[in-house]
Amino acid sequence: MIEIRNVTKEFREYKALDDVSLTFEKGKIHGVIGRNGSGKTVLFKCICGFLKADKGEIFISGQKLGKDIEAPPDVGVIIENPGFLPGYTGYQNLSFLAGIRKRISKKDIENIMARVGLDAAGKKHVGKYSLGMKQRLGIAQAIMENPSLLLLDEPMNGLDNQGVEEIRMLLMKLRDEGKTILLASHNKEDISVLCDTVVELDKGRIVKRG
Fold first, then answer.
1. Helix (H, G, I), strand (E, B) or coil at 150
2. Is the pLDDT of residue 16 over 90?
3. What is the Cα–Cα distance from 137 to 194, expressed in whole angstroms?
4. Which residues, in sequence order, are CB contacts of 29 under 8 Å at separation 6+?
5. I want to staple 63 with a disulfide (CB 3.0 to 4.6 A). Which of 68, 127, 151, 155 is the partner?
6. What is the mean pLDDT of residues 39-52?
7. How far apart are CA 82 and CA 135, in angstroms?
8. C-alpha dihedral over 200, 52, 69, 153, to 10 degrees?
9. pLDDT at position 83, please?
């Protein structure tokens, strides 16, 4: 599904990615691990088109980013902290986003919120959500249009033990439905429980894969 060929991304004299080549097979959960500053988030931003690689090529289902497509056409993303309008409910926020492409119904939004453990009828504004609730809403936003590709950077942030277990089960079910998931996490248990493949980055280079 994803092929990365000799990708380098520099910020002035700092190489965030240094000649990275990877393939991510369809229908699996692929773990990307590494310390802060290792290049995980920059890699995800390059794959989804938020950043343009200085060198190399990225292909999504055979289409070249920057040539055939500007961004993956069917992707759900959590990168860094999900941003929402604090003065509106979770349901209202998702409704605003869903209105851009008009692919899903109000009922679909209600079902997605229930799937991540949130109440679509709740009146609490997102500004009063806990960190864990915001993270659940971010996951709902990423999956609500049923994308075939998910890029999830630390999706378990702020979740309690029950929440982590619920989201792990959700991700495994999404994989069983044929989704391709790239998962960056500092939690070794998340990686060992969820991932079919793992690649480790350090200072922008691949140091281990398996």
1. strand
2. yes
3. 21
4. 171, 172, 175, 181, 183, 194, 195, 196
5. 68
6. 94
7. 7
8. 40
9. 80
Q: How far apart are CA 97 and CA 147, in angstroms?
A: 14
Residue type, 186: H
Pick the CATH number of 1-74+147-210 from 3.40.50.880, 1.10.1040.50, 3.40.50.1820, 3.40.50.300: 3.40.50.300
> What does pLDDT average to over the chain?
93
Q: Phi and psi dihedrals of 203, rounded to 5? A: 55, 40
Residue 52 CA to residue 92 CA, distance in Å, equals 32
Q: Give the DSSP H or E segment for 88.
A: none
pLDDT(3) > 80: yes
Q: Enter the DSSP assignment of 148.
A: S
Cα separation of 156 and 185, whole Å? 8
CA distance 28 to 172: 9
* pLDDT at residue 176 is higher than 90: yes
Sign of the Cα torsion 99, 93, 120, 181 reads positive
Question: Would you kindly state where each structural domain of the chain is located, as residue ranges?
Answer: 1-74+147-210, 85-146
- CA 140/CA 186 separation, integer angstroms: 21
pTM of the full structure: 0.91
Give yes or no for a contact between 41 and 79, defined as CB atoms under 8 angstroms apart.
yes
